[in-house]
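Continuing the series of single-chain predictions for the mutant panel. This is the parent chain; the variants come on the following pages.
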Amino acid sequence: MTIKEKLGILNSIEIVDYDADGSTLYHAVVENTFGNQQKLKAIGITDDEIEGAFDEEGNIDIKDFAFERCGAKWFHEDFGGFIDYIPK
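Parent structure:
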């Protein structure tokens, strides 16, 4: 699966909360639903990795998956979420 395909799947998941300061993304949280877990598994994320990304409310922080497993270089809502380049 290509980087663009992985990011396309990741960006199809609604982010319910995120925190960023313009240069650092601290978290990007999605709801812990069966459908979201299936999408994460489709890009190679395991059950154990998903469980390890639960926040205190039981949602899933996908930030590390995006940057470490899917090839994301940047996150910005105006660009569709996670992207594989750093905009200028």
